[in-house]
Recover the amino acids of this structure.
């Protein structure tokens, strides 16, 4: 497969913050629209790409949910995930922990089974087809009710052999982690791993709450921890992994320009940072592109880049396959920068 992304940094890495619905490239969106008889309110891929100008998280989410209308069948979800895995593999991703948003599909009349079975067609053969191991993480939409999240968790019980953990995403401000206390307790009782978006647009207190109330093992984004030195100290002490997404932060205007991104300061503070792509089709780059961008714009050294890659495997949910984790970590140490 040739893509403009193939040249991006092949340093072996795990991707820990990736919404599969956010990998829907305009070309595939139009192909699926035609296949499913869905009319998109854009003339062509160029016109659609022009809509990728975001003011904030909500303006992105509006388009992100609108375009999901083209995803209807198992094969659609399989094609979506396979396209992501091919691109990720070309950029050095060896292991991907992939988020999906079940409620965004079930509320459109697409069954949870269709989504999971479809994604599994791609994930189940990902090692053979792409050389990428995978895990699947089901996210709850935090701007929907806690009852809806609990119903989704219950509906997912037949599929728990394929789902490693739960996450929390969508519009953050006004939807604090505590809203989902019972859902996360139930998820923990089912043996699911727990992560949550916190401190992307929301305040540092949401990060603390995600740790203390939801019991999360990683914080997705966590960027705004930098406003609270005591919280930074805690995150360093407890070695809580943060799944940062630098290009996403620029596109959603969490930071003005990439040169202002706090990643170097976060690493200097001793935080366990990882670099990820979030919604690469919308934010201008996949995992390797994010690494390239922080290297060229923030001047990160090879040691720092290797640290980010090492952190990604250390923070991944590979406890059931420590041998694999060791193999990946050895690949990081053996990598020679061009
Ligand atoms: N859903 C997809 N991408 C997201 C992001 N960056 N923040 C919150 N929810 C999301
Ligand atoms: Zn995200």
């Amino acid at each position: 497969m040739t893509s403009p992304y193939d040249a991006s940094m092949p340093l072996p890495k795990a991707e820990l913050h990736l919404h599969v619905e956010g990998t829907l490239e305009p070309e595939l969106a139009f192909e699926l629209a035609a296949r499913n008889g869905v009319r998109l309110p854009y003339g062509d891929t160029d016109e659609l790409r022009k809509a990728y100008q975001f003011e904030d998280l909500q303006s992105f989410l509006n388009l992100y949910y609108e375009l999901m209308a083209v995803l209807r069948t198992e094969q659609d979800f399989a094609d979506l995930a396979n396209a992501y895995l091919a691109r990720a593999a070309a950029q050095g991703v060896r292991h991907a922990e992939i988020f999906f948003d079940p409620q965004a599909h079930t509320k459109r009349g697409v069954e949870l089974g269709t989504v999971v079975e479809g994604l599994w067609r791609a994930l189940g053969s990902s090692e053979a087809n792409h050389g990428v191991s995978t895990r699947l993480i089901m996210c709850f939409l935090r701007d929907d009710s806690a009852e809806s999240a609990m119903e989704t968790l219950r509906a997912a019980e037949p599929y728990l052999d394929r789902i490693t953990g739960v996450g929390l995403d969508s519009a953050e401000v006004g939807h604090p982690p505590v809203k989902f206390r019972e859902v996360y307790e139930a998820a923990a009782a089912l043996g699911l791993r727990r992560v949550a978006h916190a401190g992307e647009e929301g305040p540092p207190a949401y990060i603390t709450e995600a740790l203390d109330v939801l019991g999360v093992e990683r914080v997705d984004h966590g960027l705004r921890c930098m406003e609270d030195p005591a919280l930074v100290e805690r995150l360093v002490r407890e070695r809580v992994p943060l799944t940062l997404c630098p290009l996403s932060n620029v596109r959603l205007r969490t930071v003005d320009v990439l040169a202002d991104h706090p990643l170097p300061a976060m690493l200097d503070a001793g935080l366990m940072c990882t670099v990820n792509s979030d919604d690469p089709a919308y934010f201008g780059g996949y995992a390797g592109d994010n690494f390239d961008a922080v290297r060229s714009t923030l001047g990160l050294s090879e040691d720092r880049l290797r640290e980010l890659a090492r952190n990604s495997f250390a923070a991944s949910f590979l406890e059931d396959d420590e041998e694999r984790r060791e193999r990946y970590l050895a690949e990081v140490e053996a990598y020679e920068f061009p």
The CA atoms of residues 177 and 210 lie 5 Å apart. Confidence is low (pLDDT under 50) at residues 1-6. The longest helix spans residues 74-90. The two ends are 22 Å apart (CA to CA).
